[in-house]
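Lab channel / #folding
Pinned by the channel admin:
"Please post every new chain as: sequence first, then the structure tokens as a reply. Keep commentary short and put observations after the output so the thread stays searchable."

First post following the new format, from NK:
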Amino acid sequence: MALTGLLVFLLADVPLWGRLLAFAVAVPLLARAGRPTDKPITDRVSTGPRYRKLTAELVRRGLLSCGISRAVLGELQRVASSPPHGHNNALYLASVALGQLVAGGELTAAAVTSWLTEAATQIGQPYREAQRTIASGLRAGARRPRKVAA
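Reply from TO:
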């Protein structure tokens, strides 16, 4: 602050072009003098924790560890092994059964919908029809919540 006041006092009687010239010389000098030297970027590199990619196998193992897998895998098997004219019925029954677990807080609706949609489309069920059937089954299952026995 004092330096600024001194500069204004000294440059008060200098013509405009002289003040601009002094300013043009002083700014780069002060900027260079006040800037610390950059450190190499490799000093700041750190390695964070590595995360494993979530795969179907990890999901299956996770379900096995919490006892839900038999219910989920059984219902997915029901859909996959249904006869050609029984796909929609099997999908509805599976979504009702898993909807009960969703209502009981054991599973999430998004996960169940994803699993059942994939199973249904793999056996040839149209996507929109599968979505409607699953939503209807989840609503019906929500009326009778249940938990997995410990």
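NK: The mean pLDDT is 79.
TO: also worth noting, The chain has two domains: 2-36, 64-142.
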